[in-house]
Amino acid sequence: MTAPPRPSRLGPGLPSFYCPLPRDLLHPRAKEVETRAVEWLDAFGLYPDPVERAWGLATHSADFSCRIIPDGDVDAVLLFTQWNYWANAVDDWQDSGAHEADTAAVVEHGVRLLRTVEDPGAAVLPDGPMTRALLDLVGRTHAMLTPYELRRFVEGTRDWLLGAAWRSARAEAGSMPGLNDFVAMGPLANGTRFSLTWSDVARGDRLPADVLCSPALTALTDAAGFVVSADNDLFSYDKDDHLEPREVNLVNVLAQQEGCSPAEAVPLAVALRDRVMVLFTGLRARLAHEAGHDDGALHRHLAALGHYVAGSIAWQAGAPRYASPRNRYELPSPDARFALRYAEHPSAAEAPVPPALASWWRQLHT
Q1: d(Cα 316, Cα 195) in Å, to the nearest integer?
Q2: Predicted confidence (pLDDT) per residue in 6-22, tens digit
Q3: Among 223, 234, 252, 315, which residue's beta carbon has the most beta carbons within 10 A?
Q4: DSSP string for residues in 226-247
C-alpha cells in the first residue's frame, strides 16, 4: 500500500486569491498550440527519457501561454509556448539543489544563454538537445521580432537569469534575505518582461518606447510581476519544500522575519500580495482613463497585464508540476489540481509596504 504524500507545511489548502480581473480566458487554438509544441519538444529530444518527458509536460506550459495570451497570432503564441517549455527545463535544473546547479554554474550558464539569445552564432554553449532547441528558438525569434521587441525580450531574459542567480546565491550561502531585499530582487526570476513581450508581439501592437518605459507603466508592470511571483511562491511551495536550506520565497522570507512557521506566514504573504493587487488595479484604471478612447494599443497592453496576472493563477491551479510535485510523486498525476478559491475582497490584515515597493504607490497619485 502506497503511503500518502507528506502534508504541506502551508496547511491543508491554499488561501483564496483576490483577483478582480477577467478570468478563465483561453486562446481558442490552445489545443493546436499544445500539440505542435509537444511535437517540437519530441523532435529535438529535449527530454532524455519518458520520466523526464512526463515531468516536462506536467508544467502545462501551453496552458500558461494560452491563458496569458488568450488571443492573437497563433504562430507567435506557439513560439512563446516552446520558449516556456524550454525555460521550465532550465528552471528545474536551477532549482534542483544538485551540486552541478550551484551558483557558479547557474551564473556561467546564464551568461552563455544570454549571449546566445543576443547572438546565436556566438557558439558559447556545448552541443546537445537543449542547445539545438535553443538555437532553433533564437533563430525564429530573431526572424519574428522587430529590433526593439527583441531588445525587450533580451531584457526580460536578463531579468529571469539575474533573479535566478540571486536566489541561488542566497540559498547557497544559507542566509534567508530580508523582506525588502526579497521584494526588490526575488520577482526578477519570474521573467515578467520575458513573457509580456510576446503579448504585444502576438497582437501586433508596438507601443512607443517612451510609453512602455514610462515610470507609471514600469511600476504597473513590476506590480503585476510581484503578484504573479507571490502567487507562484504559494502554488509551488510544496515542490521545493524538501530543499535545505529552505527555498528563497516570500513565505519563507516572512517566516524567517516574523519567527513563525510557514503556515503562519501565509496570511502575511497574502496581505502584502493583496495590497499590491489593489495598487495594480487602481493604477491600471488610472492609466486606462488617461489613455482615452483612441489609444487602442495601450488599452490592449493594459488588458494583457491583467491576463498575465489572472491567467497565471488559473494555470498554476491546474498544473501537475505544482499539484502533484516531484518530491512526493514518482510521476505527475494528470488530473491533479488545487481547489482554487477566489476572494471577493482583499485581505484586511495589516501589510506594511517595504521601501523597495513604495515608488509604485507614488505613481498612483502622480
Answers
A1: 15
A2: 899 999 999 999 999 99
A3: 223
A4: HHHHHHHHHHTGGGGTT-SSPP
